[in-house]
Each structure stands twice: as structure tokens, then as C-alpha cells.
Design goal:
The protein has a single domain (2-151), classed as Tetratricopeptide repeat domain (Serine Threonine Protein Phosphatase 5, Tetratricopeptide repeat, Alpha Horseshoe). It has helices spanning 31-39, 43-55, 63-74, 79-91, 99-110, 115-125, 130-147, and strands at 2-6, 9-13, 21-22, 28-29. The radius of gyration is 16 Å and the shape is globular. The N and C termini lie far apart (47 Å). It has 7 helices and 4 strands. The chain is mainly α.
Length: 153
């Protein structure tokens, strides 16, 4: 048995364990508990499930599954999920590459103060011609009104 520490998770080669994963503030859950929370609509758990599928940790790597989980959390206004969803669009992982969508999601996260999205939305913008940028801006405004404003306190 070989134990490797990777970021937030512990990978044990040759043995499947109920390794705790992070979900939200300082909460640790088993994979089964995380899946249950995600299925119940808990946005931080959905984002975490997306990250596990995105990275192939504790589950087989599956960008389409990552996309589905990120999207569920992103439409609930979670900035981290919006950034990750934008990344899938920017690289064409699990979805068709689309810099308009990428920029719109990055910009929605930026509007919430996410610093990671601030840096990468400018990279997505460089891939857009003026008409596509205008489309991305309009889509970003729609996403903000639909997926951010209703969840702000």
C-alpha cells in the first residue's frame, strides 16, 4: 500500500478508502456523504464533486461529469464553480470550446470578487473579436442577473 498526499485528498494506491474531502468552510465529508449533499443541491458539494471529476481524484476523470456538477453550482451563484465552468469552456473539456461562454462565466465570478477569475477573464477576452466580446458581455450580464443577484444577501 502506498499513500500519496495530493492537495485536499489522500490517495491510497491499491486500496479504496472513504477519504475525507473538503466541502465548504472547514467541513470534511466522505465521498458518499459529498455525493449525497451534491445530489441534494448543496452548491459547495456540487463544486467539490466537479473538482473531483475534473482532476480524476477518487472518481474516474470525466470532464462531462465535471461540467454537470460545476454548472449546477454555478447557476446557484457560486463563484468558484463559475470560474471552473469557464475553464472547461476555455479549454473545451467536456464541452465544445467557447470563449464567449468562458468569458461570461469568468466575468460573473469576477463581479463577486473572485480574484482568480479576474486574471483569466482577460486571457479569454484576448480570444474574442469585437462582436464576440460584445456577445460575451451581454451574456455575462444575463448570467449575473440570473445566477448571481438572486443569491446575494
Amino acid at each position: 500500500m502506498k499513500i500519496i498526499l495530493l492537495g485536499r485528498t489522500i490517495v491510497v494506491i491499491g486500496v479504496l478508502l472513504m477519504t475525507p474531502v473538503w466541502c465548504g468552510a472547514e467541513e470534511k465529508l466522505s465521498l458518499a456523504e459529498l455525493q449525497q449533499r451534491a445530489a441534494q443541491g448543496h452548491a459547495p458539494a456540487q463544486t467539490e464533486m466537479g473538482m473531483l471529476y475534473d482532476d480524476g481524484l477518487m472518481v474516474p476523470q470525466d470532464y462531462k461529469q465535471a461540467y454537470q456538477w460545476y454548472r449546477k453550482a454555478a447557476v446557484q451563484g457560486l463563484a468558484e464553480a463559475q470560474v471552473n465552468l469557464g475553464g472547461l469552456y476555455a479549454y473545451g473539456l467536456g464541452v465544445q470550446k467557447n470563449f464567449v461562454e468562458a468569458y461570461a462565466w469568468f466575468n460573473s465570478a469576477t463581479a463577486q470578487g473572485n480574484t482568480r477569475s479576474t486574471r483569466i477573464k482577460d486571457l479569454a477576452k484576448k480570444q474574442l473579436d469585437p462582436a464576440s466580446f460584445a456577445e460575451a458581455q451581454a451574456l455575462s450580464e444575463t448570467y449575473y442577473k440570473k445566477y448571481v443577484m438572486p443569491f446575494q444577501k
